[in-house]
Each structure stands twice: as C-alpha cells, then as structure tokens.
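Sample 3 of the quickstart, ligand N-(iminomethyl)-L-glutamic acid:
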Amino acid sequence: MQVDHVLVDARIATMAPDGDPYGSVADGAAAAVAIAGDRIAWVGPMADLPTGLGAARRTGLDGRWITPGLIDCHTHLVHGGDRAHEFELRLEGASYEELARAGGGILSTVRATRAASEADLLASALPRLDGLIAEGATTVEIKSGYGLSVADEVKMLRVARELGRVRPVTTRTTLLAAHALPPEFADDPEGYIDLCAGPILDAVAAEGLADAVDAFCDRIGFTAAQTARVFTAARARGLAIKLHAEQLSDQGGAALAAGMGALSADHLEYLDEAGAIAMARAGTVAVLLPGAFYFIRETRLPPVDLLRRLGVPIAISTDLNPGSSPLNSPLLAMNMACTLFRLTPAEALAGMTRHAATALGMGGDTGTIAPGRRADLAIWSIERPAELAYRIGFNPLYRRIWGGK
Ligand code: NIG
Ligand code: FE
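Result:
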C-alpha cells in the first residue's frame, strides 16, 4: 500500500452509516487512518494496521478523536456591512419581517454589498471564513444574494470563488439572485424573475461561477411559481438547485424543490407532511438552521420527528449571514440543533458531515472517513464525540487536515 501519512493511536468517528451512530471504529478503541495523497487509503483498528507502511510519516494522537472535517453547507458569508443596528431595533420591538417590509433587512445588506468592491468583500469575508476553518470546517458553501443585479451577483460569486483559492478549504458557490426584490424592480417582480432566470444566470454560467442555484420562497421573498421559473432555467443550464423553504410561512416550497430534484430544502420550520413526503421520495436533504431560529426568535419548530420517521436526511448549518444568523460557529450550530431542535449529538455531527456533504452533492467524496474519500479530517482533544455538540463557546480542535495536508 502506497501511503504518505498514518495517524495512529486515535479514536475514530467515521460517521459512515453503519455501526454505532458515530460509525466508531472498533467501538472507540485505538484506531488509525492512513492517507495517500489527498485520499484516505485505509481506516481501522490499530491491531489491523497493515504492515509495510515503513516509509510513511506517523503521527501519534494520544487517543484524540478524529471525525470527518466539518461541512458548513449553507452560508451567506460574503456581504457588505452588518445589521447590528437592526438587532437593536428588534430589541426595541420590531420584527425581522417588519424590518424587511420597511426596506431594511436583506435590502440594507444589498445597499452595503453594492457599494463594496471585490477587494472589500474579500477582506471582510476572510475573517468569517477563517472562523469556520478554526472550528474544523473543510468544506463551506457560500451564496450570493446581496447583489441582485448582473454585475453585483457576479461580483459576489467571484469573491466566493476567490475565497476557495486563498484558503485551504473546499468552497461550493450558490447563485441566490432570487433572494429579495431589488428596489428598481419594486413594482415588477416578474420582471426581476426574468432577470434572474435569464441575464444573471447566463453571466454566472458563462464564468462558471456557481455550482447551484437557490431562491427564497416566502412571503417576503418569492412565490412558488416564481421559484419554479428560476429553477427551470437553472436546470436547463445543468446547475443543481436548492431552496430557502418554509422559514416564515408554508408556501409549498419544499415539495416544489423536491419535485424538481433539489439537493436540499433549508430552514423548514413551517414544513408540512406533504412537503416532507416529497422530500423523502426525492432524497432531498433537510438543512436545519438553528442559528436563524434562535436569532429571529422563531417559535415554530421544524418537524424533526416527521423527518426522522420518513427517513429524510437532516443536515445542520450555521446559515452565517448578517441579518437572521450572525453565527460564525459550526460547533455552536450543532449545540443549538440539540438544545433547540432536540437532535442527538450524533445526529448533529452527521448533520455537519455526512448529510451536509449530500446536501452539496458531494456525498461520494467527503463527509465520512472511508477508503477513497478525500482526506478531510478534524482531530479533537475530547473524550467522546458528544462533546462537540455539548460545550458552548469552547473549541477543542487540535488539528485539521484538508486534502491530506
Ligand atoms: O437564510 N431567509 C432568507 N435569507 C437568509 C437571511 C438573509 C438576511 O437576513 O440577510 C436566511 O435566513
Ligand atoms: Fe440562508
């Protein structure tokens, strides 16, 4: 076996869907993982470590736990400005929806993002991305959606692509032009959908700037019919689709997205049984975003038991954004998924690894520790994997390996 690096004396939660809920190697006894280039070559108990790995570098881990690198599958981390003032206004009684209707909310971030240069956006996004990496993230999805014009959506996605070139992290970019109605189209929502489904998509596709297309289907976003128009155009260009669905109201968005083959439907507080059944049938991942639930003080819980019963895979993400979820911590998102949504710590970790990979269409490549997968690993100074979701505001990351390095 041609191997470059062997991590030994570890405990390993592969997060593969067999064995205990963590896919633990040998019930948490001493284990090892061998890396060849950017791939995992072998994983198993220390006792079975293949012989003839003489030339490979060996690193002892003193019983630390190795998990797959974390995958944050839903972020808006590229944006201008902040919304701290709206936070103050909400504390004086305004609601998230009221601020949006009064021209604040997403549109206030649109003004700041339009005024920013690519260099400004890159500089402000880097510390946010670094914060995710510092907690073990090896893959991060990044959306546009604060430009809402051809030039400004392209600008955001160029920055998102650039982030993946300047940091050791895999990025996936998503066009979210149908996020809010820009002021110049205030009286012409259908005209704006024409722009999203035509010129914006064409410009983004011409530069290869997006891996997927998203929309915000809600009372303060777009209707299911408008969303379908954007999705049809995306599919025609071979792009994956996903949706902000059922966050503030039930628009049937999840069923629509699932019916069109979406990778994921995200938020889902108002998801009904028909929507969940459609997702189960299509294999659409439910991405739950407890940071947004917490920060805008939602009271309606996503139907977790229903999703479990129907076998819908559940992913967890930060939704890192300036308005509804300024949450720069995958670990805290996992804790919130447990405390607020009553996921188990194992479900939360699967939601930040295996199921998050599926939500990005990367399930065959990352998200579990298995031979042939990318060597994207997080090594933690913990005694049991449940600690990752248990602590609040504590980062036990010891080391992170991205693509074998
Ligand atoms: O995921 N729901 C719509 N989009 C974002 C919020 C964006 C914002 O408020 O700036 C979300 O919650
Ligand atoms: Fe979002």
